[in-house]
Amino acid sequence: MDRLNLHLLSDSTGETLEHIGKAALAQFENVETIRHFWPMVRSEQHLERILEEVARNPGMVLFTLANPTLRRRLENGCRAIGIPYVAPLDPVTDAMSNLLGQEMRNRPGRKHVLDEAYFARIDAIQFTIAHDDGVGWENWEEADIVLAGVSRTSKTPTSIYLANRGYKTANIPLVLESPPPPSLFKLRHPMVVGLTAGAERLVQVRRNRLLSLNQAPETAYVDLERVNGEVAHARRMFADQGWPVIDVTRRSIEETAAAIVNLYQERLKSSGGLPGLGPV
User: Fold this and answer.
1) Which is it for strands 145-149 and 191-196: parallel, antiparallel or unpaired?
2) How many CA atoms lie within 13 A of 169 on its CB side?
3) How far apart are CA 173 and CA 221, in angstroms?
4) What is the pLDDT of residues 210-255, one digit of tens each?
5) How far apart (Å, rounded) are the C-alpha atoms in residues 247 and 240?
């Protein structure tokens, strides 16, 4: 098994580098990776201490440093040690610079913007967890997105995925015997999205769920006729309210979330909001 010391240096939270490192390492097998994580590198003194650790644990350096002085010192230090270093965002920013005909600006405020985005994402995750499965409906007006659907239409995992993108997301199960709170139909700020799936697929997923919980696999919960009724009831509700609908039968969580984000951005544009990549 190969062994790799991977040093990740960032002048912000370093999340981008973590994702890039994980994505690259996923392409290789039998590699024992030791990650050395160095966030908030903003002074020469801090960088000098890191270079000492890099020399003691040579491997590879990935970095995102906006300060040109720190960047030059890191590059010179890596060359002196004799280890490779890569700034993975450089090809992207260089291509954008050429396309836009602009020089990239290292504005100090950019680091603060990244930090604010990080805390906004944490806030979205906390909100989403607190408003799962119909809980906290009194605060739904604070949400960005509300997902509605019958049981096992991937509402919770999709909500968590959206929260990690910075969207405050609540979700509500639609149950025949238990109407949703009236406030669901009066929401103004959040975008309500209906999630649906084929009845046969829902029966299969529900039966697997019951088996995993060691419960009887043959109940009304997995009766095909009843599930068809649930799906039809939910679809009528979506149509009556004019909510967008996404069929999750053959979609992954990521694909469903991407479709929801597209709907959200289109809604922003049509309402005069500024288009963008999302809340973060």
Assistant:
1) parallel
2) 26
3) 14
4) 988 888 878 999 999 999 999 999 999 999 999 999 999 999 999 9
5) 17
